[in-house]
Amino acid sequence: MLNTFPSPISAILDQRAEGHSLPAALYTQEDVFRADLDVFFRKHWIYVGLECDVPEAGDASVIDIGTTSLILLRDDAEHIRVLHNVCRHRGTRFLDEGQTVISKLVCPYHQWTYELSGELIHAPHMGKDFDTACHNLKPVHFKSIGGLIYVCLSDKPPTDVALLERVMEQRLAPYDIRNTKIAFQKDVIEDGNWKLTMENNRECYHCAANHPELCVSFIDLDFGFDPETLSDEDRAEAEDHMRQYAERTSAWEADGFPSSAVEQLAGNETNFRTQRLIIAGAGESQTPDATAASSKLMGTMTRKDLGDTHLWGHNCWNHFMGDHAVTAIVIPLSANKTLVRTKWLVHKDAVEGVDYDLDKLTDVWIATTDQDAELVARSQRGVEDPAYEPGPYSRFTESQLDNFATWYVERMRAHGY
């Protein structure tokens, strides 16, 4: 049986070799899983939802992260709130996970009642001297960054989220994510550790062989290539692609659309990367034919040739295009199970069947997510095999995996492991 005698986490971290994948125990041990939840999902900023999850006053969305349950809601004054889903009486949860509509937060156990702002307004049988103001619901640190909701469960959230906020508010402004709607949502539970899910997303080494639908619009050369092993013809094509990238990026930025890569990775607390990517083929959107799925463009967009503004953090990846956006949230469920929640966004006034075709909108990333789930499950079975030992990353196509592993070890060390 695996992990009969778990190694101390610090000793496992010591085993990590630069340029290589992580030791098996970091993907399999239960104590590592609990430490990951504490370090990466409590003490760092994580992406949990969108303003458009709760478009109207009284709309609420509950998100569970480990043993923590959060309520994302829009209060009566139309303000976004994030509150702990825990009654201040005896701890009962108000709401089950998922979407709902409420006028007040009423504890189902003893009917303590709270405004949507979190203020306690009714606590029956507690006596005249009971101070309701001391028992308001606990708020959660959160930021709406271009309409994306990030939370931090720590009392001292990392301050370097300021760069993410500054960069993405500007880059997301033309898409007006705050005024979108969710056209479709799909939850997939991957049979793998959350770090395998994130590693799989940060490289396209596997794309050509595994993602035929995505590769219609995605360019795997964007993720690197080994010039020494390419034929002269393929090398010339790759070099030409890089030249086109520089030219396209320069032109986009001259037109007022920030496009160059911005990274805050190893050596920092908040981990993210963004860049405007070229879309292959017809060049408009990540659809089966690379043309736009929605005729009603996002926000103030008037062009379909502005590529794919990608953004990833340590528990998410996102693609923002002229006609729609795809956003994915990653939440660990156990050492070997991970929830991937994918949402497809369109302009709030877009009408299905009139402005967009739902199948065309969703086909590529439904297929890609299902394919990735199979790959992650295979990876998990591999790291659980006694024959597994950390292998070398390609310095050409997997450098971001090495960076992620380095950041992971750094952050674990910074929090006492």
TrEMBL record:
The protein's superkingdom reads Bacteria
- Organism, as annotated: Ferranicluibacter rubi
Q: Does the keyword Metal-binding apply?
A: yes
Needed cofactors: Fe cation
Q: Specify whether DNA-binding is a keyword of the entry.
A: no
Keyword annotations: 2Fe-2S, Dioxygenase, Iron, Iron-sulfur, Metal-binding, Oxidoreductase
Annotated Rieske domain ranges read 46-151
Q: Which Pfam families match?
A: Rieske (PF00355), Ring_hydroxyl_A (PF00848)
Name assigned to this protein: Aromatic ring-hydroxylating dioxygenase subunit alpha
GO molecular function annotation = 2 iron, 2 sulfur cluster binding; dioxygenase activity; iron ion binding
